[in-house]
Specification:
This protein is α/β, with parallel strands linked by helices and about 475 residues long. The protein contains 18 helices and 13 strands.
């Protein structure tokens, strides 16, 4: 394995800044890695070799005095955001035709930060599954174990990062689509607070509906927490395309001069978790304690209500604003999965939708009060280890169990909170991790806690060769 692709994003940036390696050499090494791993993983489904090497050569020819944080770093972009010159297919064949006329704000920010896009990564149809496959590119595989999912909907990004194709992978998160793929592939990420990273796709037929605006965010996956932190400031640069962008530095509640107080909960729903999932949480708690944090067991309020409310709000929106497109452009498999969502959570009428919105406010208030007692909260990502690849389609009788296992993810989307994912358990066949959740706008606290856990556990976080 080329030594360059083993470097973290931080180490790569430092090596480029010192002149130890050129941008072209870094870009070439990662493009060669894509050629080695693809199409075997179906993660980087649209390599951009010619474009990436031209950008790298231009950077080497005229480097600025003050290099931006991501200068020369190889990055992948998910195929469900606008990317100039290529279609925003969202995994749907009918949309894989008309090229976008410009970049989404998150893509502009990555490029302005110095990142070089070496390719685009796959997503499931409509980006609404915890598994990544679609009729355009087929099934994306997990490099740790090809029998298991790489997660969804940013499963292409997670598979690519785990195998060493790029040092940062763009993704987005409406119901866990950054955190779950990171969990499935032993990686790190941050689901930013709502409004942190600007979001907009000019190619969309209409504006994003209300629930999506409340719960969907843009971010990156990486192999190390420090790499996610490196990308944080470049990603959150303001864009007028997103009027909901928020510049608040933090929640304003953290007091200086004291150790962080971190809550933790193995089973927020009270109906059991897998033994290894419990071990992953306990490892995180032990590492936080070793890092000097005060840890306290706590049961987050109204967890079942929160997960159910997420599903009701999302289903109401999907049923009214998306189902015509799903039925006319989606595969039968995608339609069946979405119908399974409807069966699991139900589809409320307008009275039910308004009641769910009111319930969300009550849950927000209770969680805000909880964060008066703790600075962050360690939770499972899922109550189960990663599922079998495409299990939701191939074993539809297990879909309800899959949806139930993912409830720790939904709460964070419903409330618009930040949540970092970090590896905490070296486990066969693949590693497991946890999510570190914070109060609104306390993204950096989540990253600080996750980074401390990562330092204490000291795993080898380099890329792996696909098995």
């Amino acid at each position: 394995m080329d030594e360059i692709i083993r470097w973290s994003a931080v180490a790569t940036a430092n090596n480029i800044a010192r002149g130890d390696v050129s941008v072209c050499e870094v870009t070439r090494a990662h493009l060669d890695r894509v050629a080695q791993c693809e199409p075997g993983l179906n993660a980087v489904v649209e390599p951009l070799e010619e474009r990436a090497m031209a950008e790298a050569a231009a950077m080497d020819a005229a480097p600025p005095v003050d290099k931006p944080p991501l200068w020369g770093l190889p990055v992948t972009i998910k195929i469900n955001v606008d990317f100039e010159g290529l279609p925003n297919s969202n995994g749907i064949p009918a949309l894989n035709k008309v090229p976008c006329t410009g970049d989404a704000p998150v893509v502009r920010n990555i490029r302005a930060g110095g990142g070089i896009v070496i390719g685009r990564t796959s997503t499931p149809e409509f980006s609404l599954r915890f598994f990544t496959s679609n009729p355009i590119y087929g099934r994306t595989l997990n490099p740790w174990d090809k029998a298991l999912t790489s997660g969804g909907s940013s499963g292409g990004a997670s598979s690519a990062l785990a195998a060493g194709m790029g040092v940062l992978g763009h993704g987005n998160d409406l119901g866990g689509s950054l955190r779950y793929p990171a969990y499935c592939c032993g990686l790190a990420t941050l689901r930013p607070s709502m409004g942190r990273v600007p979001a907009f796709n000019a190619s969309a037929v209409g504006e994003r509906p209300m629930t999506t605006n409340m719960m969907s965010v843009q971010g990156v996956i990486a192999r190390e927490v420090g790499d996610v932190r490196l990308a944080y400031d470049p990603l959150r640069v303001r864009s007028a395309d997103d009027p909901l962008w928020n510049a608040a530095p933090d929640s304003g509640r953290l007091r200086e001069g004291r150790a962080l107080r971190v809550g933790w909960c193995v089973d927020p729903f009270g109906d059991g978790v897998d033994t290894d999932v419990a071990r992953a949480v306990e490892a995180a708690v032990g590492a936080a304690q070793q890092a000097g944090m005060e840890v306290v067991e706590i049961t987050p309020p109204m967890s079942k209500d929160a997960a159910q409310t997420w599903g009701e709000l999302l289903n109401c929106e999907v049923s009214h604003s998306m189902m015509e497109a799903v039925r006319t452009t989606g595969s039968e498999a995608a339609q069946a999965v979405i119908e399974g969502f409807f069966d699991f959570f139900g589809v409320p009428d307008i009275e039910g939708f308004l009641a769910a919105q009111a319930r969300r406010m009550k849950i927000l208030r209770e969680w805000a009060r909880m964060f008066d007692k703790v600075d962050a909260l360690i939770l499972p990502v899922s109550t189960e280890p990663p599922f079998r690849v495409d299990q939701d389609i191939e074993e539809p009788e297990t879909l309800a169990g899959i949806m139930a296992a993912q409830r720790p993810l939904y709460i964070i989307n419903l409330l618009g909170l930040p949540g970092a994912t970090v590896r905490t358990l070296a486990h066969e066949p693949i590693p497991l991790g946890v999510q570190v959740v914070g109060d609104r706008m306390d993204d950096l606290i989540c990253l600080d806690v996750a980074a401390a856990i990562e330092r204490e556990l000291a795993f080898d976080l380099g890329p792996i060769d696909p098995r």
